[in-house]
Amino acid sequence: MQYVGNVIRPPSEADSIILQVTVGCSYNKCTFCGAYKDVSFTIKDEAEIKQDLRFARQHCRNQKRVFLADGDVLILSQKRLVRLFQLVHEYLPWISRISLYGNARAIRGKSKDILLELKALGLDRIYMGLESGCDEILQRIEKGETAESMIAAGRKIRGVGIFLSVTALLGLGGIALSKRHAEKTAKVLTAMAPSQIAMLTLIPLKNTVLGQEIQAGKFLLPNPQEILAELSLLIRHLQNVRCQFHANHASSYLPIFGRLPKDQVDLLASIEMAKSGASPLVAEHRRAL
Ligand code: SF4
């Protein structure tokens, strides 16, 4: 496969064929995100995509799923997306699931009928970055969205029956907005009712505005104990949410996961044990994005 730049995929796509159809992110402004800072957004030629599909047809027969990279493939026109999905089925007829990253802006640009057409073509799962449910934080990180626009986008995906995985970022409010970040994020997640919640933990990157603010002492990053308190508060505020809950990303200080609401008490107990020192945290040097 011919990958350009950093190719990032969600942890649950570890066993998928990663087909890179765009390079970078068309938005690329979030102040915490260093994933695609060194590349301009481009859409790969069909010839290149076909070459990768031929490779996958030969070498990836045991992989049943395809993840379309990079940052926000859903931003492509419907014509391109339909062609892309048709190509995947033509070259890899055994594929049972296609998924991609879709930000709120891209989702807003797709009507319900368009999403249903993609679903019929095999779009099974969309990974959406909420990051925070707090408007003040969303504005500060230049996400270009509000809590309300995020809820509308999430509900739209759930409304057409596509699996929605939503990511939020612990630590993104700093020490000052930690409590508000947890409470507002839980509120937005509750309103979205996603199929899966994935909590990551902020790791400052030198090539980002936020990383530089942290280095300059302008943004105070919560310590591991404060991150655990934030996670605990968020879980306690998730009301009537029925979904998979993952806080076991490589950036996490305490890898935990479960189903909500069934495992809410156990998840909170695990956090309390870690806070008391009874169970170890992931060492700083072992954390990664
Ligand atoms: S967080 Fe997502 S939308 Fe924001 S710059 Fe990174 S890839 Fe693009």
Describe the protein in words.
The chain has helices at 46-59, 78-91, 104-108, 112-120, 135-140, 147-159, 178-192, 209-215, 224-237, 264-276; strands at residues 17-20, 22-23, 42-43, 65-69, 97-101, 123-131, 163-170, 196-201, 243-247, 256-260. Helix content is 38%, strand content 18%. The protein starts with 16 loop residues before the first strand and ends in a 13-residue tail after the last helix. The chain has one domain (11-286): TIM Barrel, CATH 3.20.20.70. The protein is an alpha/beta fold and 289 residues long. Iron/sulfur cluster binds at residues 25, 27-30, 33, 35-36, 71-72, 103, 129.
Largest sheet: 8 strands, mixed
Percentage of residues in strands: 15-25%
Strand and helix order: EEEHEHEHHEHHEHEHHEEH
Bound molecules: iron/sulfur cluster
| Name of the CATH class | Alpha Beta
Query: Number of domains in the coordinates?
Result: 1
- Give the neighbour order of strands across the main sheet: 1-4-5-6-7-8-9-10
CATH architecture assignment: Alpha-Beta Barrel
Number of strands: 10
Mean pLDDT, all residues: 96
Secondary structure elements and pairings:
Elements: E1 17-20, E2 22-23, E3 42-43, H1 46-59, E4 65-69, H2 78-91, E5 97-101, H3 104-108, H4 112-120, E6 123-131, H5 135-140, H6 147-159, E7 163-170, H7 178-192, E8 196-201, H8 209-215, H9 224-237, E9 243-247, E10 256-260, H10 264-276
Parallel strand pairs: 1-4, 4-5, 5-6, 6-7, 7-8, 8-9
Antiparallel strand pairs: 2-3, 9-10
Helix pairs in contact: 1-2, 6-7, 7-9, 9-10
Bound molecules: iron/sulfur cluster.
